[in-house]
Amino acid sequence: xxxxRVFGLLVLLLLAFVFPLLISDPGYDxxxxxxxxxxxxxxxxxxxxxxxxxxxxxxxxxxGIGAYTxxxxxxxxxxxxxxxxxxxxxxxxLVAGIFAIPMGWVxxxxxxxxxxxxxxxxxxxxxxxxxxxxxxxxxxxxxxxxLTIWSGDFYNIxxxxxxxxxxxxxxxxxxxxxxxxxxxGLLAIRDDEDRALGLGVRTWVxxxxxxVISAFLGGMAGAMFAYYGGSIFPATAFDPVVNLSVALxxxxxxxxxxxxxIVGAFLLExxxxxxxxxxxxxxxxxxxxxSLLLLIILxxxxxxxxxxxxxxxxxxxxxxxxxPVSSHDMEQEEVVLLESGGGEKE
Amino acid sequence: MALIFDALLSGLLTGGIYALMASGLTLxxxxxxxxxxxxGILVILGAYLSYALYQYLHIDIFLGLLITMPAMFVLGxxxxxAFIRRLKQDQSRIMLSVLVMFAVALIIEGTLNLIxxxxxxxxxxxxxxxxxxxxxxxxxxxYVFAFILSVVLLTGLYFLVYRTQxxxxxRASMQNRTAAELIGIDVRRVSAITFAxxxxxxxxxxxxxxxxxxxxxxxxxxxxxxxxVIIVLGGLGSLSGALFASxxxxxxxxxxxxxxxxxxxxxxxxxLLVVLLVFRPQGLFGQLEGxxx
Lengths: 346, 293
What we know:
Chain A contains 17 helices and two strands. With about 350 residues, chain A is mainly alpha-helical. In chain A, α2 packs antiparallel against α11, α2 (about 25-50) packs across α14 (about 260-280) and α3 packs across α11 (about 205-230). The radius of gyration of chain A is 20 Å and the shape is globular. Chains A and B meet through α6, α13 and α15 of A and α4, α9 and α11 of B.
């Protein structure tokens, strides 16, 4: 089993690595970059919100802080476009993480729906600050990133691989947490916080640290989003649509599972981009997206990955044993990967 | 001084309108246990309905409510039947409801953009630009009319919830769903009607909003975040909480605008909200949530 899992992962990774070499259409590459970044962001979101059960609808706070950090560093120190901003991504993540400490300190005193609303409110406060502290953030006129030095077919390549690295980092962190005692503590908080506290889980430390780690990953992804986009404004950095997209992708794939967020992002983001290109961003694509979401939520309420997991378990039970040489189609790999992930959520 | 008085007055008047929209939202949360994130777009839908009635049939926006409120009531019944009834009663219900209602909101938003285009519009009536001079400033008629409408509808809602048989069933379902079922209340019917009432109220709220603001379908995001904040501040499921929180929020915003500048209006409010929730997580009038198994 383990061998199949590792093999599947390697195949996927290889595919991801050669993708921009095979397909050089800049349109597809840009969709791929956004998809990878969303996958990284949702993985970061999931390792706090998914594992601990504290659903945050304010993740754009951290992507926005990361984006502004990178933009302002580049502007103040006159950093030229090219590879150097990539090296500054961890700094953006760090700043987001530092911001997350007082924010989490306050927000984590509340639970459930109140927590959701507090996270939304905090994002709007940050957005307003970005608008109003115009001496520092240049307000509504935004910040422009330095021009890139790449052009032509090569233009997207560096962005693509850095995004892939970000996703890998997020995935590894998420995997480590999921398979550690720390992650078990977070899951215990999700299932019953008071009981977890009674059993000796230091819930406060666990929650706050996971919140900060999640913010760190979000900050890096957000900085990358902004750098690829080329400019940043308060309304796009702290965008309520990002809050919702991140949560939607998480729920679509399966909250609290290891690869659910990636599956959700890989399905939803290209689809959203395609619809935007095909129908414009305002009317028809919203209707199609909404209908599709409704369909998925009502048919697979727990998310795609847990649903596939159930189907897989049923098949295994029917056959009595797993045959080791099963085919390697996409569906199965997800399920195989999931064995190390979550899916216990009923 | 006149400035502060003006801010207080306009805060109270618009606060009444928000109270109307927020009461529907908080009732829906209380009885059905779901967060209706589509409330924002439903308000805008209500505004567009009034707009269409005035534009094409020349029906006065206040009279038009006699048509739009029943229409929205039926729409609410439809949404409840089609989607909300299918959600299970378990831990994931709240989040799933957010996703379902968000999907519904997307569909409505797309449809509104298709029909009305994303251009900003506002509602028209002969008296919309008229105003009373009071002291040093002018008080537009439409604010006063909208406030009176809110008072009438909210009084009606209070009467319905606290003085009728249906209201007893509603509050029983809110307190304990299972127990309410055990004593013979048809909780599903109560839920459906509560949801429909909440949606019907958005028709009136939307009309008042549309008469006092420029709007398009995208205005719903700003509205829903304000409404969510209001009902959390007031305490989820509490009608009087929604009322006081709406008035408080709008008064604070307008006072900040008058004293400091409009760009800080919502910031001050959001900061106050966060501070308050740290000390009182259940909101102003909410019940402290018991431990859920």
